[in-house]
Write a structure and sequence with these properties.
The protein is mostly helical. The chain is about 40% helix and about 10% strand.
């Protein structure tokens, strides 16, 4: 049997909601709803006015776990 190795790269550990929408092709409003439902993993916010940042590393780990 041969071993298969997968290699992934993430351009940045955190991206804005707008960038995530652009990268995935998911409409921005849908991304916002998914964040609100907890379907998209975000960086913990330190203040109410801080912008939401999608945790790309956690999202990749989640995708691998659920594959």
């Amino acid at each position: 049997m041969s071993n298969i190795t997968y290699e992934f790269s993430v351009a940045a550990p955190y991206v804005s909601v707008n960038k995530y929408s652009e990268l995935t092709g998911i409409p921005l409003e849908t991304v916002r709803k998914m964040v609100h439902r907890g379907d998209i993993i975000i960086r913990p916010k330190k203040g109410a006015k801080e912008k939401v940042q999608v945790n790309m590393i956690a999202m990749l780990k989640d995708a691998i776990r659920n594959s």
